[in-house]
Design goal:
alpha+beta, four-stranded mixed beta sheet, two-stranded antiparallel sheet, 45% helix, 21% strand
Amino acid sequence: MTRSGFLFLALALLAASPAPAGDAGARVLELVNAARAEPRRCGWKRFDAAPPLVRSTTLDRVAHAHAEDMAARGRMEHAGGDGSSPAERASRAGYAWMRIAENVAQGQATPEEAVASWLKSSGHCASLMDAAYVETGIGVATAGAGGPYWAQVFGTPAT
């Protein structure tokens, strides 16, 4: 390979690298709130525009831990490595909830790709657009085969 070939390869790999987790989470929130601001159809269900979500540090910890767990196991799924559900993980973290949902994704290099994949999936889109959810947490883990791994937890706090 020529020197210019190595430079091209290095630049292509840098361009495909995901943003740092903190930056990625902020960008996911921005994209999700922009999507919620517009009415849309998720599969056969129609959703009105929904208010923006507020970031929760507790749900951020839950989402980040699940993204890391998926990356460590090399498996994208809602069940944790210990068999836990999103609701169980939120409760263990001390989040007093009325409603919980979770979106996961694997392999998308950017927040834009992750959110676009959720919007194309009727179930993930419905969670994202559900106006009953008012808080969210976002996590991304870049280690592991097939990564990055993305997790977004949606919550409605108990009153």
